[in-house]
């Protein structure tokens, strides 16, 4: 690998501006770049490029200090300008809970309308490299609007992250920024005006396109740079997906520039006040007449957990600890009233019949099917497009690979070509455990092949190396199967 790093100044290739998913035998690299155009005081444009790495998706090695070390090198080249830096992370045991790491690079535009961005990524420990590329297009119009950046105001701001007296530290993310346990949403942008009259108008919309109260505003732009920092009180807002809309308008009110940026907000306190039932409290008699057994209400909530949204799951977690059956019933009825307003009772009973089939297919004497990982995945995403079942496969435990051509869920965006890998390490009945998935929000373990083996890989049970992963024993299909490229899931925590 050293020769590759030595050649980086000569041969570095281009980049995807969105999240890069690079598949290897052992892991899915999660790395993202976010370029933002800014201007100096004298009007010269430049780029701030934020690099984000998911440290749980790179390789680790055990060092003499009895700690696990990751070493990930990045080289960014914009035309003839180069920036090289290293992501380093150290952990005592597992990389499962490793954070998202952030670095910033700045490049002068040189006045070029189009610039080639070239990137090389090197996982030193994993002995792997990736080459990606794209073209950055410079906006040089009468009004230039910088892409809004959501801010992490809890983070310490290094000097190179400031714009004037504003600390512009992005909320680290690999897609949508996630705000949790905060009351304020902050964002920053700049508008550059060469001449004329322009207006920056902004608002935040909820998932239904409704404007969040108190989130709308505007700023008149003078010639030159016009920084805009906005802090919004989100104390009363419920959990959900939101969109920030920023528009640049000319003197006639015509839109000449715009950005729409999405984010996720969690507010446990506000969620608890909304139980999705406009009809109010449900009595025992009315519930049992139309919905089921009063004594099983809390179990019903466990059954619907796989098909709920992120905000609804937070409410479920709170209801899990309550002894107020009426409150739990209120949520159940309200959930189906919102999901199927024309016929909620029939929709619930149809879903319940699917749950019973899942129990028969994946359950055991001690564990109902909807509480198993296979049952949960089936309920949340539906039946897989393809199942490869290996009950006896050389030296491996029994395992199954479920492949989905298309993955749909209330809690995640639509995804294509995703896999789930289940293994039965107990060898008692059908106790299959989900050990790895390529899908968003699921268990992701780049040493999953290690966990399939009964007798091989006698070394330590952490972040197996590419050498350990490279076996292809007689009778095994693991390395040849269609594997496409957060330990633990919400489901595990909810059921414990």
Could you characterize the architecture of this molecule?
By secondary structure, the chain is an alpha+beta fold. It contains 11 helices and 25 strands. The strands form 6 sheets. Strands 1, 5, 6, 7, 9 and 10 form a 6-stranded antiparallel beta sheet that branches. A hairpin with an 8-residue loop joins strand 22 and strand 23 (399-409). The longest helix is centred in the C-terminal third of the chain and has 19 residues, at 344-362. The model is unreliable at 1-27 and 456-488 (pLDDT under 50).
Key attributes of the depicted protein:
496 residues, alpha+beta, Immunoglobulin-like, 4 domains, six-stranded antiparallel beta sheet, five-stranded mixed beta sheet, disordered N terminus
Give a short synopsis of this structure.
With 496 residues, the protein is α+β, with helices and mostly antiparallel strands. The chain has 11 helices and 25 strands. Strand 22 and strand 23 form a beta hairpin.
Roughly what percent helix? 10-25%
What's the mean pLDDT score?
A: 80
Main sheet attributes: strand count, strand direction, barrel closure: 6 strands, antiparallel
Low-confidence stretches: 1-27, 456-488
Distance between the termini: 44 Å
Total of DSSP H or I helical runs spanning 4+ residues: 11
CATH topology of the largest domain: Immunoglobulin-like
Number of domains: 4
User: Rounded to an integer, what's the Rg over CA atoms?
Assistant: 26 Å
Instruction: Tell me the CATH architecture of the largest domain.
Output: Sandwich
Share of residues in strands = 35-45%
| Overall strand count | 25
Shape: globular
CATH class division of the largest domain? Mainly Beta
Structural class: alpha+beta
